[in-house]
Amino acid sequence: MPGTVPGTAPGTILVIGATGTTGSRTTAQLVAAGRRVKAAGRTATPLPGAEPVRFDWYDPATHGDALTGADRVYLVPPVGDPDPAAVMLPFLERARAGGVRRAVLLSSSAIPAGGPAVGAVHRALPGLFDEWAVLRPSWFMQNFTGTHAHADSIRAHGTILTAAGTGRVGFVDADDIAAVAVRALTDDRAPDADLVLTGPEALGHDDIAAILTEVTGRRVVHHHLTYDALRERLAAAIPAEFAAMLAGMDRAIAEGAEDRTTDTVERLTGRPPHGFRAVAERELPLRRPAAHAAPDASR
């Protein structure tokens, strides 16, 4: 295999962002399937069954060790960078020259090829690799159960703040994204396609709040913000350009851009995608059943 280091077993998969929401799940599922995995992250965190390796998009000195022996790569873009192509494309050219033949990129249903941010990497990927896939998941269900700002707001205040209005989204489980990533990385034939991933139904944020209330027993409310209010709120914590892009995504949801479902998860994995209620019940503390009243001895 061109570029494979002598003495290194072929078929090693490099997972970039291996401690993240989809990267950790993809790593775990690959290991469970018996695949050799290099788990790349800024701190080379050990993960069961995988080889830890330090990797920083902004430090090319870490790229060589990460790529050594790998022939496939799962790509999670640098978080919060409005122009990830500036660091990703040089890395991908180096990966191709070093023997990587298949690349699977995590993008977003809201960003088409040639669009903003990772859209530029999406557009370039088919010209860099003969075997490729771009995963374009809808918004993650884990945004409400993990470490996302929505989840933090729910835990702290029982609120979800968006500019999405009553727009609906085909929210998708990160476990399902990982399952598709594993197939895209390991099937004999790569998808060589742009794959939009959703859950089984489109839900509004009011629906999400109602389900969370029912599952946890704690009242959760969706507060409707304007685009400007959300942009200003986000800009207090992240770069203004990125804040405007995220607020714009919420505005697009309000206009119906994410009101869809696809059969991609079932088509690639052979099973239906998980619904939001099932994920909430799996990942959140459940409502405690009411205690039965003690029998009245006078009766």
UniProtKB/TrEMBL annotation:
Location of the NAD(P)-binding domain: 17-113
Protein name, as recorded: NAD(P)H-binding protein
Superkingdom as given in the UniProt entry: Bacteria
InterPro entries on file: Ergot_Alk_Oxidoreductase, NAD(P)-bd_dom, NAD(P)-bd_dom_sf
Organism: Streptomyces flavotricini
Family annotation (SUPFAM superfamilies): NAD(P)-binding Rossmann-fold domains (SSF51735)
Record region (Disordered): 258-299
Record's compositionally biased regions (Low complexity): 287-299
